C-alpha cells in the first residue's frame, strides 16, 4: 500500500472515530444491506424454532476529500441508522411468533445478529420456501455547508427493503392420530390403548416403530409401549395397540399421553417424527363395599359370620376372594371366602368361621376385610380395606344357660345318669 492510500485510510478512520474533526468530506456512498440465516435453514414440519439472522451492511464510501474549510459530517453516507427488522412468512408455511426488533445503527462493513421464533405448519409439504426480512432504516441523503459558515445541514432518506431468506422444509414423517380407543383401562388397572396413526408427511419411512412417551406428571405408564410398524409411507394408515397401566391415585378422566414414530429414511438416516399428544380416557376404579348388617356373636361361642360384598366400581373383578383379619378376641382357621366374578353392581356372600374368646368384652368390634381379585388383563389387584362390624353380645335364654359352666356340668350329669339307667334297663331284660 503506497503512502497516499495510507494517509487516506488514516483520515477515514479519524473521521469515523472523531466526527467533529473538520476537513473530511465523503463525495458519495450509501448502505448496502444484506441478510442471511446463521446455522441450518432446514426444518421439520410442525416444529417451533428460533431462527438466527445476521444483518450486514457492506456499503462503502469510495471517494472522499480533505478540505480544512469544510465541516466533517456527523454520519458517513454508508451508515444505516435506526435499523428496524421484522420477519414475514413470505411463501413459507410458517407462523411468525416474534415482533419486529430495533437493531440501532449498522456502520459499513459491520453486522448485527437478530433472532426470530417461527412455527412451521404441521402439514407443511417438503420443499424450499422464502421468508421475507423487512428492513427499515435511514441514511444520509445530502449535506450542505454554506460559504464561510460553520453550520452543516444534513438530510436523511428513509428506506424499506425486503430480503429473501430461503428455508427448506425437510421430508419427514408427519404423524397424525386419527382415532383413540381404550379397553379395560380403569383407575388402578392395566388396559389396552388403540391408536390409529397416519403418515400425512412426504417421507417414505422404513423400519418404523410407534412409541408411547409418558407425561412427566401424568398417572399413565406404558407397560407395553412400542409397536413395530415396518414401512410407513405417505398416506399410510396403521392401527397400534399398546398396554397401559393407571395409578391407583388417578381420577376417572382424560389424561395426556405422547406418541412418536421412530423410523429410517430412504437414505438410511435415522429420524423421529413430531410428537403427537393424545387424550386417553380412564374409567373409574374397581371398588367394593359391605352391604350386609353387622353380625352378632357371644363370648365363648364358635360362630359363622355372613358378609355381603358389592362391587360399586366401574369394571368387573375376576376370581375375587375376600378375607378378614381376625384380631383379639376373635380367632379363625377359615378367614377366606371365594366370591367369583363380580360385575359392577353385583353382590356376593362370604361366610367366615370364628371363635370368640369367653372373656371377650361386650361391644362392637371392627375387623379389617379386603378383596383380592384379577383385572381384565389377569393382573392381581387388592381392594381398599373395608371395616366389618361384629358385635359381641350377652347370650340370652338357652344360649346363656349353656354358656354357664355349672349348667353345663349339671346337664352332663343328667345325660350320664340317663345313659346309665338305659343300659341297666336293657341288661335286666
Largest sheet, described in full? 6 strands, mixed
Kindly state the percentage of residues in helix.
10-25%
Radius of gyration, whole Å: 45 Å
- Class by helix and strand content? mainly beta
What name is given to the CATH topology of the largest domain? Immunoglobulin-like
Uncertain stretches of 5 or more adjacent residues: 3-8, 14-21
Structure in words:
The protein is 10% helix and 54% strand. The protein has three domains: 23-169, Immunoglobulin-like, CATH 2.60.40; 175-281, Sandwich (Immunoglobulin-like), CATH 2.60.40.10; 288-398, Immunoglobulins (Immunoglobulin-like, Sandwich), CATH 2.60.40.10. Strands 22, 24, 26, 28, 29 and 30 form a six-stranded mixed sheet that branches. A five-stranded mixed sheet has the order 3-11-10-6-8, with no helix packed on it. The chain is mostly beta strands and 429 residues long. Strand 28 and strand 29 (380-382) form a beta hairpin.
Provide the descriptors you would attach to this structure in a database record.
3 domains, 429 residues, Immunoglobulin-like, 3 helices, six-stranded mixed beta sheet, 30 strands, disordered N terminus, mainly beta, five-stranded mixed beta sheet
Amino acid at each position: 500500500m503506497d503512502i497516499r492510500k495510507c494517509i487516506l485510510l488514516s483520515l477515514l478512520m479519524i473521521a469515523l472515530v472523531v466526527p467533529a474533526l473538520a476537513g473530511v468530506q465523503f463525495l458519495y456512498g450509501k448502505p448496502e444491506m444484506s441478510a442471511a440465516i446463521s446455522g441450518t435453514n432446514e426444518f421439520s414440519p410442525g416444529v417451533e424454532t428460533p431462527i438466527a439472522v445476521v444483518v450486514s451492511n457492506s456499503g462503502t464510501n469510495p471517494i472522499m476529500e480533505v478540505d480544512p474549510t469544510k465541516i466533517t459530517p456527523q454520519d458517513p453516507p454508508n451508515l444505516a441508522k435506526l435499523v428496524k427488522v421484522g420477519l414475514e412468512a413470505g411463501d413459507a408455511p410458517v407462523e411468525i411468533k416474534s415482533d419486529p426488533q430495533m437493531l440501532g445503527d449498522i456502520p459499513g462493513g459491520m453486522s448485527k445478529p437478530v433472532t426470530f421464533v417461527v412455527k412451521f405448519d404441521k402439514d407443511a409439504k417438503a420443499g424450499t420456501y422464502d421468508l421475507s426480512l423487512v428492513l427499515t432504516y435511514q441514511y444520509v441523503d445530502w449535506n450542505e455547508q454554506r460559504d464561510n459558515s460553520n453550520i452543516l445541514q444534513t438530510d436523511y432518506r428513509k428506506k424499506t427493503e425486503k430480503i429473501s431468506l430461503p428455508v427448506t422444509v425437510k421430508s419427514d414423517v408427519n404423524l397424525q392420530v386419527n382415532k383413540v380407543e381404550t379397553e379395560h383401562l380403569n383407575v388402578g388397572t392395566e388396559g389396552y390403548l388403540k391408536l390409529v396413526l397416519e403418515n400425512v408427511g412426504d417421507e417414505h419411512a422404513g423400519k418404523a416403530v410407534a412409541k408411547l412417551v409418558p407425561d412427566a406428571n401424568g398417572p399413565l405408564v406404558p407397560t407395553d409401549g412400542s409397536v413395530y410398524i415396518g414401512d410407513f409411507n405417505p398416506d399410510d394408515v396403521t392401527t397400534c395397540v399398546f398396554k397401559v397401566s393407571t395409578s391407583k391415585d388417578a381420577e376417572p378422566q382424560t389424561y395426556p399421553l405422547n406418541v412418536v414414530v421412530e423410523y429410517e429414511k430412504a437414505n438410511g438416516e435415522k429420524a423421529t417424527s413430531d410428537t403427537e399428544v393424545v387424550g386417553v380416557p380412564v374409567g373409574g376404579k374397581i371398588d367394593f363395599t359391605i352391604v350386609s348388617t353387622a353380625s352378632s356373636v357371644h363370648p365363648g361361642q364358635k360362630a359363622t359370620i355372613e358378609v355381603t360384598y358389592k362391587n360399586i366400581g366401574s369394571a368387573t373383578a375376576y376370581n375375587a376372594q375376600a378375607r378378614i383379619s381376625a384380631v383379639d378376641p376373635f380367632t379363625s382357621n377359615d378367614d377366606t371366602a371365594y366370591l367369583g366374578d363380580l360385575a359392577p353392581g353385583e353382590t356376593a356372600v362370604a361366610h367366615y368361621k370364628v371363635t370368640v374368646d369367653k372373656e371377650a368384652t361386650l361391644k362392637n368390634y371392627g375387623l379389617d376385610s379386603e378383596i383380592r381379585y384379577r383385572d381384565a388383563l389377569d393382573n392381581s389387584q387388592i381392594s381398599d380395606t373395608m371395616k366389618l362390624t361384629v358385635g359381641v353380645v350377652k347370650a340370652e335364654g338357652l344360649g346363656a344357660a349353656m354358656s354357664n359352666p355349672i349348667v353345663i356340668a349339671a346337664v352332663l350329669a343328667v345325660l350320664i345318669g340317663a345313659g346309665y339307667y338305659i343300659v341297666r334297663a336293657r341288661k335286666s331284660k
